[in-house]
Backbone:
């Protein structure tokens, strides 16, 4: 069992993550939040002391940005100095996008660096936050209600599944496109219409279109079949699944919504990081030692 | 049957309302939208000509503001001049909050003035828009997801019913308070917990609280039992159901959300006006004449 | 406060009702259940002693049948003898369809006889049981799944509302008919289609039709427009809302489902009786006396 | 393109399957339904002629039983005679559990025998029918309503997923057990509680327990922690996931529900067979020839 934890860098998500560890009884030290006043709950400290005095270390997602620890709430940049690295090298480090850390600090032992952002449950729980965030965007941007609006969800992966569920729950008139017969079968068990992704051009008009597929699905040809007053929300990570230039030429409103979890629900996003780390700690017997 | 319709004043809702009448085959004349360029669909005209050349007249909600026809999209104020009134006096007038019109222009015949804002189906459909708008606010302001958040809906009238439904659909952990046993019975058939409104002080903490009751439910005493980090959204019309001053003193975040339909979903709000007027036209045999 | 309660007559519902009172700490005496072996929880007794030794008396729904207390689980008929009536006359009596009791025993004081079956929350909660029971019948009789089946619910009263909700939840393709504009408005906020009851003849075919309206909606003319392979489930109490003779002649499968709560879910039906009586006891200050 | 199809053997599912092919414009010949009178739609014929005169052949699930074609609606047993086999050997054969056919008739060419029962979309769609069938059983056997009943679904595979969804939709209080973190993550995005399968003994009591796991989850130890009045419905195929003997000794009500699709909804089950075959025909280019 570990008793103390240092969180270095990150944004609101890390603060909520820290709160959750605190609620679990950990001694929590924060570093890289000097824009924050201590509220008596957390210990605030410099990175080296934070690491030194803690059993485990948590870094944000992404853990590293432009050669420094990603710490948007810190006035000073946090450098991976020799001193800090030597303190870190003893500890278990939990971070997001660990490859960035390991390439910047190759002296860290790979077996001591754990990447929560690669875990499947992390991706699933974040898909829920993304799905809700997408609904929020649609509610804000679309001038009608979601109820009975004609929505297309393109793709039935983690985000597509949960987004489809939310839209159906809000009584939208939902169509979901997928390529695999088994996905089409699952879709047809829901309160929505299943169509093949390669038949998008033949569909009747939609009010709101959500893309979740990380490939150029909405190319010029498909876009030319979309109603002019449709709202197209692309949830696929850069470069996205929409030919934005053609969309603009065709006067189709588009929104490329990126990194929704941290923006739409930092509290939940922080809890997800915490829960994933807890799962990893439980699973990894080697991580366990008597308190 | 009527063939032509004039819409005088109003905001985006009236534009969407106009579009719906157009889709139904009416000749539609708009007035009070000089900030708007004609898009070839509507005839744009001065108020007098608009009324003169139309079978029926539609005014916005509220129809009158500060002594003029409520026309926020017009550069000039639209006065109820003698000329305009004489044109109006021949026509059936559909408006919201008709008493304001009738007190400003007592010479209009009461039996020719129809108030869509008093219709029950109008109130119900707008409650849907308000409920979705409230969810949108909660999504925007609350730092977690709605899913599994602890929500209290105070009141089980039109808005409370639909809001409860939306929150349950989004997998929130919903408690609804009401006073009447029959409301509590209905609530208990849903996926939520029913409590008596007078027991609010005894409840466990909530993340988001929605008030729909137009009475001071959230007085100092009740507020003192609310978690400090709760978000309190008041949907009751002015003065609302919250002692905002005490809430502020207790550092409870509050939002007084007013007139959501027009803000959150003007398209739907406009369609509702149109549908209500259509119902009134159908019902009122006296309104019918051969085309 | 009352401490002891006698339940005379009734079926499984009364047994479950008795169990709930027991769980609340009451001393419970059962009578009219001689087909039942005592399981040590309840006191079993003759009607006179049961009443004599209890603070309040609960009779079933209906309380009286063919001149006796309605006691289908009793070998002997329970007569309202002078002795029993004199014991009863002192007590508060809670029963269903009290008019039957009062006309059989006019000497009972009307102000001491409380009818739970007239309470609105009783009707609402039983509507839920009826709605689930109707779904169960549909699942059993219809040879397809409810999911994506085409269902018509005729009427939007207590049962119609809840049945519509259940069918939508199971992803049926639901149409609801009603007469009032306000009901049609509420229906249109759900995931279903709203139609006017007088337009039933013009609708496209349904797999399953549920009638909840206690009037002859499905007369010969309407029946002649129904698909031959449709299943028609009438939930309206006798005589129902279907011309069964014409339906038979037209080879339409019909089921007249009556008294579903006691049949489909006696446990819940018993809990509803108990909860309603508890509400009545709480409300009626005159009922309260120190324990 | 194929124009004609022979369905040999099977039960009601095959009849509904045949109807669907008919609706798609196929010439359909039925064999093995001599308990049935022709209704003018299907050609009824002996197996040999049926095969001879058709482009493709459909056999039931399972296709073979006790050495004969599985034909419960036929008076006579249908033998795989040399004559019939030689007719079959030319045709594409679609069947369920093809291994049984191929071991009985090894002379059939494996590449001409297509097994729809091995297809993923077939399994998914049948899981929906099974889930609804399980709900029907629960509604019939449980003496309360599903709404607010405490349900446990053990396993989050195809059936567990859809059953969980149905129960949540009916407002049950649902707990789902799974072993994998990613399944637990998905479960936690629904309106239910996620628990680890190995913690079943520690859970609070349930009204209805559904097992979907094909392994002995409900052994004596787990059973001893289950409430005596719980209903335990085992959906796992033989031998199931319940120690039925121990359950009986512990007086726990159990139901081993097998082959639900054909029993609960033969119409849907038949449509699923048809849709799966259609998918296979579409996918298999080699199957296609000009009409």
Residues:
């Amino acid at each position: 069992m570990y008793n103390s934890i240092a969180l270095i860098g990150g944004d609101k998500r890390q603060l909520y993550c820290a709160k959750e560890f605190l609620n679990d009884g950990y001694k929590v030290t924060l570093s890289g939040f000097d824009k924050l006043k201590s509220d008596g709950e957390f210990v605030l400290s410099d990175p080296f002391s934070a690491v030194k005095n803690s059993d485990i270390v948590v870094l944000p997602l992404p853990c590293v940005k432009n050669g420094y620890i990603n710490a948007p709430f810190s006035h000073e940049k946090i450098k991976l100095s020799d001193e800090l690295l030597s303190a870190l090298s003893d500890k278990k480090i939990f971070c997001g996008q660990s490859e960035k850390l390991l390439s910047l600090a190759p002296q860290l032992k790979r077996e001591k660096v754990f990447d929560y952002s690669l875990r499947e449950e992390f991706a699933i729980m974040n898909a829920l936050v993304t799905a809700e965030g997408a609904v929020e965007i649609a509610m804000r941007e679309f001038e009608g209600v979601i109820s009975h609006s004609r929505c297309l969800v393109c793709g039935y992966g983690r985000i597509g599944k949960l987004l489809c569920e939310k839209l159906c729950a809000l009584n939208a008139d939902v169509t979901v496109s997928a390529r695999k017969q088994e996905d089409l079968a699952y879709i047809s068990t829901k309160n929505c219409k299943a169509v093949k992704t390669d038949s998008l051009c033949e569909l009747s008009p939609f009010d709101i279109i959500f893309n979740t597929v990380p490939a150029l699905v909405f190319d010029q040809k498909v876009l030319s079949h979309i109603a002019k007053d449709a709202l197209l929300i692309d949830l696929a990570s850069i470069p996205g699944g929409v030919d934005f230039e053609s969309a603009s030429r065709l006067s189709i409103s588009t929104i490329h919504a990126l990194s929704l979890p941290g923006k739409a629900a930092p509290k939940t996003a922080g809890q997800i990081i915490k829960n994933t780390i807890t799962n990893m700690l439980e699973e990894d017997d080697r991580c366990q030692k008597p308190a």
Q: What stands out?
A: Chain A touches chain C at residues 147-148, 168, 171, 188-191 (CB under 8 Å). Chain A has a mean pLDDT of 93. Residues 120-141 of chain A form the longest helix (22 residues). The domain at 4-118+265-287 of chain A is CATH 3.40.50.720 (Rossmann fold).
